[in-house]
Amino acid sequence: LWESLTVLIGFTLSIGLRYLYKQLNYRSFSLIKLTTIVILFSFFGANIWYLIDQLLDFAMKWTSLQSVPVNFITYLSFIVFESILLTTYSSLYFTLKLYIDWNTQKEQTDKANLMAQKAQLQLLRYQLNPHFLFNTLSSLRALVRIDSQRAETMITKISEFLRYTLADENRLEVPLSEELEIARLYLDIEKVRFGENLIIKLSIDPLAED
Length: 210
What we know:
By secondary structure, the chain is mostly helical.
């Protein structure tokens, strides 16, 4: 019966520690700080365990064979043993929590990478759609006959545009300046096609480009 009560006390304390740990923003703690917190909480928990154990021992009036004399050595051995138990529980708790956090973060990262790849494929579909290629090549064919210099300029712009579009940099973010560059290349191609009929105005703060 006494051993069962002791186990029940320890189980109740572990639930209390779990509640306290849930209140902590442990993700922002360093390993040293988290270890210190675990040791301190386990030490205080062991003292509470010892106090309840002694109170129950006194209240139930156990015989001398069952009752343990109160002295510093007995107290110290009890505290050390129970602190190790609670520290082990706390370590397992945080190990499991950190593993779950790591696994969740990995899933989110994989999901973000997958979404980025889908977005990149979608971008390719938008930028290299058949209408754009057909219209550009048709204009280029016409320019070759009447204005070889403009045709050469257009070929250069198309090659730069395609190089940027097909570049696989696997980046989730790029500077605004790069996005503006691809927009300028696209508009330059359209400018060659439409000439003075296409009027382009850009108003961009240089401080925003990075």
